[in-house]
Amino acid sequence: MSLGGDQFWVVLVSRQDADHAIAGAQRYAAAKPIVVRSANGWFAAVSGPHTIRSGLGRQFLEAQIKEQRAPKDAYLTKGANFVESVWAQPASNIEDTLQYDGEHDAAFRKDDLEIKLTRHSVGDGEADAVAIGTYKGKPAFNMEFTENPTDTPASQVQLVRLDPNSPMPQVVFTYFWKGAHCCTITKIATLTKEGTWHVVDGDTIDGDGGYQFEDLENKGFSYLISIDQSFLYAFDSYAGSYSPSRIHQLSGDTLVDVATDAKFQHTLLQSLYLQEEYAGDGDDSWHSNGFLAGWVASSILVGRGDAAWSKMLASYDHQSDFSQEKCTTNAPIDKCPDDKKVKLAFPAALRAFLAEHGYISDISRFSVPYEVEPASPTPLSQPAVIAKPINSNLKACVDQSDLVRKLIYQTFADRKTYAGESYESVSLHNDATLEGYDANIGKVTCAVTYEIILTKLIGRLAEDGNFRRAEALNRLSRRSGGVVSTRVRFTVKPTATPGNVFVELMQ
Question: 424 and 440 in contact (C-beta within 8 Å)?
Fold first, then answer.
């Protein structure tokens, strides 16, 4: 896999195990990455090979980053230490596609199967989307979406191998009815091995896309991949909601939920790690009830529910505006008087939600501190906040924030940074304070809270071959949940060169 000449790989992420690396690859799916194993035993998600002329490497990477095909700390490599490819995006097994614009009939033929996409007028200028199939010259199926007719009911048919026992690929008919965040509906026409056509109703799926089709076992047929729609808006806004993955298989005329099959544990684990990849960009997700709900459910699916539940209890948002209610009279909530409604604490609401949707059967395993969120004490008065100009000595520290981040990165890496190396895994809070000032030499002492995402640094150290340091940080990462946050003191003092300063971390 080693490249020569102007050929390069772009390293997107580097992880200690394959499942984490695959999750990183899925995050940058637009780059069409693969996952490779390195000689050091680590795994990297890479895109390429790319042809890059001498001197244009940085320009190429910046374009990839701008198009969201690569993270900001991506870098180029010849791949001298790459041993083998271990993963690529599964095939979809989509054999053909027919688009309908909602106005002009469309048709195509595949062997003995003819398909026509048209419309059925329902009045007031609106129409339903319709797919008509003829097999060996005889009527086979007639699929019509009667939900949400429009003046131009655009739709689509795809021929996809979903049932390995069927003599024909399945006819997947989809219609997006538009509107905020909703919805794609799906019908599937399938020919059973007995020679009978059946129409199977799929789920109504949020957004303009519907199911994803993935050949998870590389056997020539695809599973239907989606998310659990019930989590959307349950504990946060649409944008703030995360959902566990769902996996269905078409068997005859039935869609079977196979997500809990042991052979898909790695697929679900990669979905969990992908959620954590997104959450790793900042601390906010770990205090978002919308994220935590989906993350806990995803953790339960791979046998990590107890640890996830404990972390959720320690970090959830007690004051979220998205909450579920309970009626103190035990009446249905829609018939409960307003003065009898109480706000459920998020853990209690989540436990009930997970039980209702089949994620947990024994609720006693998941303890809750209280069922109803205690009222927060209201202060008698709120002191006025008066904006003050920043102290010039404190400003001397704040102005060196970028250098402080670099020094923290070097401390954890136990080495100097390379030319052009990113240290964006380190961030500073906006809470710098002035700790002291020595007027005799102009030295200012300040303190600030920092956070460092260890997983990014560990991957880079492993690529460098610094396994001892990578393993030490990996042990720290396991103890700290992947992020270290604490307060650091540092000094800023002038040097003999006018305008230059010397910055030093204090141990």
Answer: no
